[in-house]
Fold this protein.
Amino acid sequence: MQGSQQAEAAKRKRSVAMHSQGGPAVVRFPRRARLRIVVLISGGGTTLRNLIEKSRAGHVPIDIVLVISSTEKAGGLRFAEEAGIPAVVVPFKEFPNEAAFSEVIFDHCRRVNTDFVVMGGFLKRLVIPEDFQLRVLNIHPALIPAFCGKGFYGRRVHEAVLEFGAKVSGCTVHFADQEYDHGPIILQRAVPVLDEDTPETLAARVFQAECEAYPEALRLLAAGRIEVVGRRVKILPEIPG
């Protein structure tokens, strides 16, 4: 069994085609009928709940094969339990550093032969190994590169947007790299910032955009319509059939 799992993992790694001809590296993702994903959570799990609902409704071709939480207190674990999705807790506090913590996270991901790792309100920085480069997605509740980076999460983001006086905010789906909110941007969705907004009302509007943006990014990946050139992401034309 172990041998077959390793072979499958190697196949999944090879399925991301990369080439370079003197310019920036080009990465293309193959078309797949469905994506096997692992969802990482640290809190209430609203992103996980949205993906479960969208999958059940047939709006996004994903199978959530595992949920990993960085804390046993994460409220989102109940959504995994209710949906019958296996879940494990990898408590960050039990590890000496981010590298050791990340190693266990990705060992779990390899075990279930995931295609992509989806961060849904996951508050810990990951050290992403070579075989998971451009296979970890994150969603940020602002338009990167504005209002992002270490310390910008949850309510803090929306407070910063309002304090700055921005007229537009939104969300960003991107590939995660070794820095906070930094990897190649897949897509963004903008929402207006209203004069009467509070952090709560702005957060609710942004989350509605997130609920459509994350599934859309996953649909594009499943359809083989994503190409990464350097750090620029291109959306390719739809493939017939």
In short: The chain has a mean pLDDT of 91.
